[in-house]
What we know:
Blueprint: H1 2-9, H2 34-41, H3 49-63, E1 71-77, E2 83-89, E3 92-101, E4 107-111, H4 120-124, E5 128-129, H5 135-144, E6 161-165, E7 172-178, E8 185-190, E9 195-198
Antiparallel strand pairs: 1-2, 1-5, 1-6, 2-3, 3-4, 6-7, 7-8, 8-9
Amino acid sequence: MRTSRLTAIGVAVFLGATVTACGNGVAPASEPSAVATAATAEQPSELTLDTVNWALSTLQEQTGAPLEEIQLKSLMISPGGSATFDALDPAKPTELNQYVAYPDGRRLVHPYDYGGADNYEALTATLFGAHEVSPETLVAAWQDSFDRVQGERSEMSASGVSASREDETGPVQLSIVNGPQRDRQSVYYDANGQFLRTS
């Protein structure tokens, strides 16, 4: 059902239409599509490619930079369309901010105090490019997480998908919390969407 909706609206390709725009190459974030808006009102239980592409587009709008120029410490995109990105400000690369976007149009930016110049090198070791994990991988990992936990699909409730470096400086790792309400587990994947483990 979700797949047919996505086909109908023509989802943008991650490194193509998402970052292709005039001027500095930043794609302006459109308002949430009818699909995303309706899904939010229904409190959706499924993460879609439409939602992920829209979230990444809002990040480009908030930072004023294409994905290839954005360095992330972490990301989290929820099925409902809200997204949180901890990222360096591309215009002021010693400043770390939290960029938050909601499908109702609200945008927030919260500055972080990470300790200044003395901690900058340690901070950069935790970063990864915003383009390093494709939207398709984020969605595929989220969907696969239902097959990695015990329980009836109808009883499962999955969080959004998160990405950060394992143990701060290790490989980029995706995680989704999934399972029945009383027995939820964290499911982990690498940056290519390969299943790693549950815990």
